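Incident log, structure service

09:12 report received: a user says their structure output differs between two submissions of the same chain.
09:20 pulled the input from the user's history:
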Amino acid sequence: MSVRDLIYKVYERRLERKLASAKIPRHVGVIVDGNRRWARAMGLSDVSRGHQKGADKISELLVWCKEVGVEIVTLWLLSTDNLGRPKSELESLLRVIENLVMDLVAQGWHLNPMGALDLLPDHTARVLKYAKEATSDRPGLIVNVAVGYGGRREIADAVRSLLQEHASKGATIEELAEILDVEHIAKHLYTRGQPDPDLVIRTSGEQRLSGFLLWQSAHSEFYFCEAYWPDFRKVDFLRALRSYAARHRRYGI
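09:34 re-ran on a clean worker, output below:
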């Protein structure tokens, strides 16, 4: 172990001791950003190697979350906008995601895919559906895997589902309009039944949500990390938790 690694290990333990009595977020959302830029910074012409390196980091993150008592993690792996990437890059990225999902199934996690699965290739959609069915009864940490996800699309899907539900009961639009409130829509989101994220982490230095959990993040705390996702360390995760614990959460402006 190098001197630098030893220093970080000591720092990790110090942070862990401080967090032992701190409030821990129940639900953490993570925008795993910077895989392509990491590959280019490393001088790699094949950006899929960055995506693979980022996928390898996911299992580490989930272990860290389990260790501190996080109950739900939402990982944004592929946005609806990403579906417009060049075919060769998109196909390799989807293969990485499919392999990652199957690895997470094998590791024993409870997976909940979320997103517009109808926009994905059939094989990718089948892998995600299998993961949901195969792990639905598992206890412990819930891992929301957002693939083909867009915040605006989620809200549109929720409203569409709500309208279809009430139409199936014979209700009119006018009747629905009289009773409609935010809870009705929330019950049709991809994360229905789950608490909203307490903390949203984004890597790569970008300080924006890009449409991630638009509805659910109304009262979330945000933590922006400069590291590209493949370089995200346990120290960075603990720093995010420390920042969250130090904040006084206020609801409203």
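09:41 both user submissions now match this output. Likely a transient worker issue. Closing.
09:42 reviewer note: The two ends are 47 Å apart (CA to CA). The beta strands are 27-31, 72-79, 110-114, 142-149, 199-202, 221-224.
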